[in-house]
Design a protein that fits this description.
It is a single chain. By secondary structure, the protein is an alpha/beta fold. About 20% of the residues lie in helices and about 30% in strands. The protein has one domain: Dihydrofolate Reductase, subunit A (3-Layer(aba) Sandwich), CATH 3.40.430.10. A hairpin with a 5-residue loop joins strand 9 and strand 10. The protein is globular, with a radius of gyration of 16 Å. The mean pLDDT is about 90.
Length: about 180
């Protein structure tokens, strides 16, 4: 059975978006990143994706050409009225309103022997960490200081989550990927 991996990109000073909610500075290298061996391997080993509603909404419902061609489980309070664009025989969407545990369980079933990749903002990754659902945490650090915005670790202080570093990967554009095993 695959692992549950959570990943996020943040600035060197710990922000996952700027004060306006914009993430573009953190992904200014996305075209280059898509071609890296690291992302290509993640695409191959991912059997399902769990994302939050904000991450879904950022794409405005259009997932045409989305890198993860796998079942996607969107954690939400309300199912959108419009069907997402880009669905095909490999890429499908399920909107989960029963909570993060349900979303992860459905994704694990869909993924089979492959990994479940959790993407999105701080809230969904924090929910997974607090519930003990994540086996590996992957944090990409971009070499910039945003100064303000949404901090990734803002609401995890009381959780006392212990991590073991398993690898550090230097990627193009100064991006550094830090990979940790979540100690349970």
């Amino acid at each position: 059975m695959g692992k549950v991996l959570a990943g996020i990109t943040m600035s060197l000073d710990g922000f996952i978006n700027d004060c306006n909610g914009d993430v573009s500075q953190l992904y200014s290298d996305f075209a280059t990143l898509r071609e890296t061996e690291v992302l290509q391997e993640a695409i191959i080993t991912t059997g399902a994706v769990v994302m939050g509603r904000r991450a879904y909404d950022m794409a405005e419902g259009d997932f045409t050409g989305y890198e993860f061609q796998a079942p996607i489980f969107v954690l939400t309070h309300h199912v959108p009225e419009k069907a997402p664009k880009g669905e095909n025989e490999r890429l499908s969407f399920t909107f989960v309103t029963e909570g993060i545990e349900s979303a992860i369980e459905k994704a694990k079933t869909a993924a089979g022997d492959k990994d479940v990749t959790v993407i999105g903002g701080a809230d969904i990754v924090q929910q997974c960490l607090r519930a003990g659902l994540v086996e590996e945490l992957q944090i990409d650090i971009m070499p910039l200081l945003l100064g303000e915005g949404l901090r990734f670790f803002e609401h995890l202080a009381a959780s006392q989550i212990q991590l073991e570093r398993i690898k550090v990967i230097e990627l193009p554009a100064g991006r550094t990927e830090l990979c940790f095993r979540v100690i349970k």
